[in-house]
Design brief:
The chain has 663 residues and is an alpha+beta fold. It has two domains: 358 residues, Chondroitin AC/alginate lyase (Glycosyltransferase); 284 residues, Beta-galactosidase, Chain A, domain 5 (Distorted Sandwich). 32% of the residues lie in helices and 22% in strands. The strands form five sheets. An eight-stranded antiparallel sheet has the order 11-12-13-14-22-19-18-17, with no helix packed on it. It has a five-stranded antiparallel sheet with strand order 3-4-5-7-8, with no helix packed on it. Strands 9, 15, 16, 20 and 21 form a five-stranded antiparallel sheet that branches.
């Protein structure tokens, strides 16, 4: 791919000379026309309200005290809130200024562009180490790259009306902060070879700005070569299955900017250079539909949210290019839904959103009934249940799903979560993943695995002999079995998770089996998940619930297992050996062996990625055993294993809370 791009690049640049702005979606007239389409009415109302506030209030400042906050305390929220508000106001006013009768908006736009050009740094303090001057000069992070891209597109769109000095200032700052260190001096940055979102976002944003602003032919050629190299590094982080280890939120970020650059390069080169080709790219494009469970709720491993807004412009473009069946209702995200107020998403949501590529979720036309990501180690099965109480689902089948995670514990935005699983019902992850926590200095510092959102203590995986899962590539889930029925009605998976618990001294082997099955026949009103955890010990373990005598032998050790289930729903004890989580539309019943496992539930109060308080309920099954030193000398291989078997039944929620034991 890279060689063919380089061959085309020289020819096209020589043909076009110093032309720029040859990008159809950066036309002010076309953008204004699109902005007033009926399907964008809600977006425009939201955007206009935000923009008018920006016209009537001073632009937030970035004072020194906020800049130093991260280096002094590790706090990053206050600075970033002001920083992103500035970008948001600039983006909104740039859209309002499309109306040529609004002279106030144009004047405000010029002031805002001038003000952003005068910022000490376009980088976030959290990406600058201690923030010293030598760490600022020539540094390019995600948001410096996003800033130069936004400025480049705004001055391109408004080139005929903006004051010449403002445009020159933008070009000057882009040259000083981005183009000179990156393309002329060829300074090295860690993200240039990163196999995750940084390479696509940083490389793509700088590359798009270069296509729009650079007049020097040789530097422009260098920028294309550099950006294609970054994009290849980004793609190396994906397997042929198209799975994104960082999760759906970072798929939007990384592959979104990959797509945005690819589309601009394609237009710039008159279609000769196309990065949106081959089967691997098609698989990556399909990722959000494969991990969509129902109701706009997704598998949210790593630092992703359950509810994620997929930019409608991005999804529309990919659906049309790759023939994807979108099983989501058509929805254009509001500008204020994105706390970072990203210009790239806003512009392309306006220009590319196409209701025709979206399906009818109510008809349950799922793109796929399940998928196994062979490279990533994720397994997903989806199905639907009949609903006797049709009021709760508007008469539609109740959508249910399960997801299982393998992989390893050294992934980008890693959580120590091997063997994690999600039970989904009716648009809700009832047994869930905590997703991303609040980003602070500690979140990315040594010892991060002790934080709730990152630690295995915040996931549906066991604590073994007091040991959480360890971090690192050596902690891997070895997939022993992964079989999915074509209709998604049955999934059988077995994982060997022994290497995740190196600190469990008595543990010889730990495997986790999942058996998922949808009810068959005319009455499809339930699904079942059987989970079997097998712990094999190096010495015989006897449960303390069983009769035991050490006959005076002092060489006796203890072992323990604590199985854990995470939910935002507080479970209710139906009776001994039976728990129930009541979701909005569905119910999950869990049965277990109460003779050997003790149950307790605790509330854990934390905050999510956006610093919003959230409570998780962690339900634990606890087992304690004792090492029988006398029996070690007796050949009893079957006694070297402890088994925890639980059964989850997923059903539509009844009108009243009624639970019956089902055998």
């Amino acid at each position: 791919m890279e060689d063919s791009i380089h061959e085309v690049e020289n020819e096209n640049i020589n043909q076009r000379g110093n032309e720029c702005n040859a990008v159809s979606y950066l036309s002010a007239d076309r953008l204004l026309e699109k902005l007033f389409q009926p399907e964008l009415a809600t977006l425009y109302t939201d955007l206009k309200a935000y923009g008018e506030r920006a016209l009537n209030e001073p632009l937030p400042t970035l004072p020194f005290r906020l800049y130093r906050q991260f280096g002094d305390t590790g706090e990053r929220k206050a600075y970033e809130q002001a920083y992103f508000d500035r970008r948001g106001r600039l983006a909104a006013v740039a859209m309002l200024a499309l109306d040529t009768t609004n002279s106030d908006a144009l004047q405000a736009l010029e002031e805002m562009l001038w003000d952003v050009c005068g910022e000490y740094t376009w980088c976030l303090p959290a990406h600058l180490g201690t923030g010293e001057v030598d760490q600022v000069a020539g540094n390019i992070d995600l948001f410096a790259a996003e800033t130069v891209h936004m400025l480049a597109e705004i001055v391109t769109i408004h080139a005929e009306r903006l004051d010449r000095l403002v445009i020159e200032r933008v070009r000057f700052e882009a040259e000083r902060r981005i183009f000179t260190p990156l393309y002329r001096d060829q300074q090295k940055f860690h993200w240039q070879t990163a196999d995750h979102n940084w390479s696509a976002v940083c490389g793509g944003c700088c590359g798009m700005a270069a296509l729009l602003l650079l007049k020097d032919e040789s530097t422009l050629r260098e920028s294309i070569s550099h950006t294609v190299s970054c994009m290849n590094a980004f793609l190396s982080g994906y397997g042929e299955d198209g799975g994104c280890a960082e999760g759906i939120g970072y798929w939007v970020y990384g592959f979104g900017y990959y797509t945005y650059y690819a589309e601009m390069l394609r237009e710039y080169s008159d279609g000769e250079s196309n990065l949106l080709t081959d089967s691997k790219i098609a698989a990556i494009a399909a990722f959000p539909l494969r991990v969509h469970l129902s109701g706009g709720t997704y598998v949210n491993y790593s630092d992703s949210a359950e509810q994620e807004e997929i930019p409608s412009g991005l999804l529309s473009l990919l659906a049309s290019r790759f023939g994807l069946q979108v099983d989501l209702p058509f929805h254009i995200p509001l500008f204020t839904d994105d706390p970072c107020h990203r210009w790239a998403h806003l512009l392309r949501n306006v220009m590319w959103s196409d209701p025709a590529v979206y399906g009818d979720e109510g008809a349950f036309k799922q793109a796929e009934r399940g998928f196994i990501f062979q490279n990533l180690g994720w397994m997903i099965a989806k199905g639907s249940l009949d609903t006797p109480d049709t009021k709760c689902t508007n008469g539609d089948p109740l959508q249910v799903a399960i997801s299982v995670k393998g992989g390893h514990n050294d992934e980008p935005h890693n959580h120590n979560d091997l063997g994690q699983f999600i039970i989904h019902c009716g648009g809700e992850n009832i047994l869930c993943d905590p997703g991303a926590g609040l980003y602070t200095q500690a979140y990315f510092a040594p010892g991060r695995e002790q934080l709730f959102h990152i630690s295995s203590s915040g996931h549906n995986v066991p604590l073994i002999e007091g040991q959480e899962q360890s971090s690192g590539l050596q902690a891997q889930a070895h997939v022993l079995e992964a079989k999915l029925a074509e209709d998604g009605g049955e999934l059988n998976t077995t994982l060997d998770l022994t290497s995740a618990y190196p600190g469990a001294a008595s543990l010889a082997c730990y495997t986790r089996q999942f058996h998922w099955k949808m009810a068959s026949g005319d009455n499809r009103n339930r699904a079942e998940l059987r989970l079997i955890d097998r712990f094999q010990w190096k010495s015989r373990m006897v449960s303390l619930a069983e009769p035991f005598s050490s006959e005076g032998d002092s060489d006796v050790g203890y072992s323990s297992i604590v199985e854990r289930w995470m939910s935002k729903v507080q479970p209710e004890v139906v009776k001994s050996g039976n728990l129930c989580w009541q979701g909005v539309h569905g119910t999950v019943h869990m049965t277990y062996d109460a003779n050997h496992w003790q149950v307790f539930t605790e509330a854990i109060d934390t905050v999510d990625h956006n610093n919003v308080p959230v409570t998780f309920y962690r339900t634990s099954l606890s087992w304690t055993g004792v090492l029988d030193a006398m029996d070690v000398r007796i050949e009893r291989p079957n006694a070297l294993e402890t088994v925890c078997e639980v059964r989850f039944i997923i059903e539509p929620k009844m009108g009243e809370f009624e639970v019956s034991m089902r055998e």
